[in-house]
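Predict the structure of Endonuclease/exonuclease/phosphatase domain-containing protein.
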Amino acid sequence: MNILAWNCQGLGAALTVQNLKEVCFRKKPQLVFVMESKQKARVVRKIRRRCGFTQEWIVDPIGYSGGLALWWSEDITVNILFSSQNIIHTSILSGNFDTPDYVSFIYSPPGEEERNMCWQEIRRIGRNISGSWLCLGDFTIFYPKTRRVGASRDLGVKS
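Done. Here is the predicted structure for Endonuclease/exonuclease/phosphatase domain-containing protein.
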């Protein structure tokens, strides 16, 4: 099963929508998880159709912050078990693909207090899982400077 998870940082720009559509048609995912849509359901629904999907679950943003969308193809069944501003927890059934029993799509908030509440919710969900479970998305994990690798540490950029 192909799953695309993308923190698009807003579905308002034509180039973002064009790139998303191109990736969907080229890679043919069965599920697409869009984080930070920053758009109301009406706009997200229109983009979903342009990307070739018929099924959806949408969490509207609060103002211009956040927003989640989960789109899937007709050859799978997605049951939404829990949904919030940061998590869409599902069970997925498919006769054509090997799928985990449960999939949690996560967009962890940047603020420490909200992030801690999100992790508490993930732990709560996990306590009720029996079977395979996939968690994917943007987890917003911050490491101490001593554990970081990449451009900001290697190039001497202050963070």
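The CA atoms of residues 75 and 126 lie 27 Å apart.
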